[in-house]
Amino acid sequence: MDAVIENLPLFLEGFRNTLGLLVLAGIGALVLGIIIATMRISPVASFRGFATVYTEIVRNTPLTLVLFFCAYLLPYLQYSPGYFTLATIGLTVYTSPFVAEALRSGINGVHVGQAEAARSIGLTFGQTLSFVVMPQAVRMVIPPLINVFIALTKNTSVAGAFFVFELFGAARKVTNLRGDEVLAILLAVAAFYLLVTVSLGLIAGRVEKKVAVLR
Amino acid sequence: MTSVLYDAPGPRAIVRSRVLSIVGIIVIAAGLVWLVLALGAPKVSANGAEQPGLWDASRWDVFLDVQVWRTLGQGALNTLRMAAVAAVFALVLGVLFSFGRASDTRWIRLPTTIVLEFVRGMPVLLMMLFILLVFSTGSFWAGVAALSVYNGAIIGEALRAGIASLPRGQREAGLAIGLTPIATRFRIEFPQAFRQMLPIIIAQLVVLLKDTSLSFVVGYEELLRAGLYNLTNFFGSRYSFSFFLVVLAIYLTMNLLLSWLARVIARRTGSRSGGVTPDAKVPPVKPVDPEIVYPAALGNQSGGAGIPSAGGL
């Protein structure tokens, strides 16, 4: 136990970096994901094709490979803003198609009858989207989006293998220093991760329940 | 696809959308061409030395060496072996977890729920390190154990959701004809739940295949370590970009094949699952979009790969 208490500053620094990666990559993925999702449902065929290919390729690439590209090959191509930024870029790119799919499934999940009803009482395209479809879609999208962010929280640990000092990096460093108390150290790190993932999960559950009542 | 949202386009709208589409193609193609040319341009490093571009033959000649292909093949085989072993254990564990989670006995249900929550909230990577250091299993079994526990938890949750979504009459009917509760679960509920959740389970197996690449951290010689670290160390960083592209292509081939299989199976089971009772007016099991109905079951390490959504609008 004392190994954990002694090295608490290290863990806290790692936790800060984990949260930093989560927030920055989360915002980035949200922006990129909205763009991709818009392209995916747009009436312009070439944008649709591009978004589909992008989604398929990125979703079927292991995160480790994406981060390897960012950590080793981008500096090799003479772009090196530091490993934290590089990992943020990698996580952003990797998470964006999942965000896009969550958004798209939310819009697809709105019942066709809703749009038909809106159209038949004479609402225009813009009115249909903004007054009928979107308010329902946004509610349905939030639980899957939170799940994407839970996955992102866990994915930040991979950045620890690519020179970013976050929680997993802290765990590796401290277990190297104190080989005798591995169990306590790893449980402590797990507790930090669970703090984020479980609380996000609880929020998702509550939102889901609210949405279920509304429908 | 979105024709419900607006009137059918007239001639002018069709022309406009076609023009936009062509402009889009040109913009995207120009971007790609620029990228390829920029990567191919010779680089001048800080000390003035000029290196050949990334498409230059001197960066690709290693692939004439048979040993390179042998190393890559060995790496891919190791990846597949880990994925196969872990998939079997994950399925077994998933079934056990789902029974534990749906058990009538509180003393089984509660601990299982806690274990599941714990496992699902933790990164696979941490679990691998944990198992490697605490149980000193060696890298292969550390990777297999972490992947099977983690994916087993998610498969278990999916199966439980499948059992919960069955009509209550199934269980009641099983009990009424004199089967024990366990026999009912095994012979009546579980086969239906499994068939309904098969697409999610296969999508999860794609995730498992992708996540085997994490085991490079604990030192397992899989495709990523063999192809990117070992080969680059041996042949020099001159070839790192070429190795990266080849490894990426191998991963994409494996994962896209498995995703495609998932899609084929999803389509086949999707059309069949409606007919639990053939004479029912309303299909008892609604075809579901797993991403919407069971997002909790899909809250996974790297997200599920490719199940097309049912598509409302």
TrEMBL record, chain A:
> Which InterPro entries does the annotation name?
AA_ABC_transptr_permease_3TM (IPR010065), ArtM/GltK/GlnP/TcyL/YhdX-like (IPR043429), MetI-like (IPR000515), MetI-like_sf (IPR035906)
The entry sums up its family as follows: Belongs to the binding-protein-dependent transport system permease family. HisMQ subfamily.
List each copy of the ABC transmembrane type-1 domain by range.
Answer: 15-204
Q: Which organism is it from?
A: Cryobacterium tagatosivorans
Which parts of the chain span the membrane according to its record? 18-37, 57-77, 83-100, 148-170, 182-205
Keywords carried by this UniProt record: Amino-acid transport, Cell membrane, Membrane, Transmembrane, Transmembrane helix, Transport
The name this protein carries in UniProt is Amino acid ABC transporter permease
Any single GO BP term: amino acid transport
GO molecular function list: transmembrane transporter activity
Subcellular localization, per the record?
Answer: Cell membrane
Q: Which domain of life is it from?
A: Bacteria
What membrane topology does the annotation report for this chain?
Multi-pass membrane protein
**Entries under PANTHER family matching the protein:** AMINO-ACID ABC TRANSPORTER PERMEASE PROTEIN YHDX-RELATED (PTHR30614:SF37), MEMBRANE COMPONENT OF AMINO ACID ABC TRANSPORTER (PTHR30614)
Q: Which residues form a coiled coil?
A: none
Automatic annotation (TrEMBL), chain B:
Q: Which GO terms describe its molecular function?
A: transmembrane transporter activity
Specify whether Nucleotide-binding is a keyword of the entry: no
Q: Which key words tag this protein in UniProt?
A: Cell membrane, Membrane, Transmembrane, Transmembrane helix, Transport
UniProt xrefs under SUPFAM superfamilies: MetI-like
Membrane-related topology note: Multi-pass membrane protein
Q: Where in the cell is it found?
A: Cell membrane
Q: Would you say which domain of life the source belongs to? A: Bacteria
Residues in ABC transmembrane type-1 domain copies: 76-262
One BP annotation, GO: amino acid transport
Q: Which InterPro entries match?
A: AA_ABC_transptr_permease_3TM, ArtM/GltK/GlnP/TcyL/YhdX-like, MetI-like, MetI-like_sf
GO cellular component entries: ATP-binding cassette (ABC) transporter complex
Name the residues that span the membrane: 20-41, 82-102, 114-134, 240-262
Q: PANTHER family per the record?
A: AMINO ACID ABC TRANSPORTER PERMEASE, MEMBRANE COMPONENT OF AMINO ACID ABC TRANSPORTER
Family from the record? Belongs to the binding-protein-dependent transport system permease family.
Q: What is this protein called?
A: Amino acid ABC transporter permease
